[in-house]
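Cast an eye over my tokenised protein here and flag anything odd:

===
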Amino acid sequence: MTSIPTQDYSIHFNTTGYSKLNELIKNNDYSSIFILVDSNTNANCLTPVLQHIETDIRIEILEIESGEQHKNLDTCASLWSALSELGTDRKSLMINLGGGVVTDLGGFVACCYQRGIDFINIPTTLLSMVDASIGGKNGVDLGLLKNQIGVIKTPKMVIVDTSFLNTLSSREMRSGLAEMIKHGLIANPKHYSDLKNLSKLTLEDLDALIYDSILVKKHIVEQDPTEQNLRKTLNFGHTLGHAIESFYLNKKDQALLHGEAIAIGMILESYLSSKLLNFDTDKLNKIKSQLINTFGHPKINPENYDSIIDLMKHDKKNQNGIIKFVLLKDIGNCAINQEASKELIINSFEFYNN
């Protein structure tokens, strides 16, 4: 696959990515290299990456525990302490090897350490390949509040090695498909249509769809890198989805992966779209059917509606305390800064549950 240039960096694929990584290391006279992994990527992904790196520079491995519950300032503090103890200076490079938790948190750690060291992302999950590692958003959660602390700064490069998809469970693969479906719904009807029959996808098909999904996000981010207007459209499904993900985060038997929560959020916000923007009812029902068939149908207890709505009050898109949604006018056409009453939000839960 051909590399994708952005305004500040490039997204490289497979073996080309490692060649570009070695060029970067050779041309920048780094003093040391730190590879951030979690327990999963340490076991499944680190060895092949190390085999591709050609350098005599000191390489140190930093490992964190896997899971969204560890994406917090405590983990950052332990990494900053480790970097300091290992003598990291401003000419060091951090390589974030993992899913969205690792790339979000690792980028934030790199941006803040000594006011910023270079970093690159090597996403290992489908979700991070098409979304989390691209666009320069770095940050951590604050308690149950998703991505409440962070900065926008782009990496030196992103390397998408699709061989790492072989390390994922089917549930993790499905989680990534949610963001790809979102990209189609907000900006590219053909991309959405190509994703409708997921059961018949081959790995070759998936490579092409990953590429197309990255292009959708790249196009949006380049027009609005700091999320003042257009980039907000990437949050379709996330206002309710993030609140649902946060609510269930520490409920072990009910915890949802990011994509599973966003799939529910897209159904709920498609319903709001039908009521507020006259989004076509047939399309609404088809979206609901497709997402439930793909991600399952975990019901939301009515006793939890108020708690989930309360979590939405901290969403970063809100203005003057008013919850703001991204809603669909049509597939491929959406509107930002939309408001919905609590009654209508509760109706969306009922629509999803039934």
Remarks:
- The chain has two domains: 4-167, 170-353.
- Residues 203-223 form the longest helix (21 residues).
- Residues 98 and 123 are 5 Å apart (CA to CA).
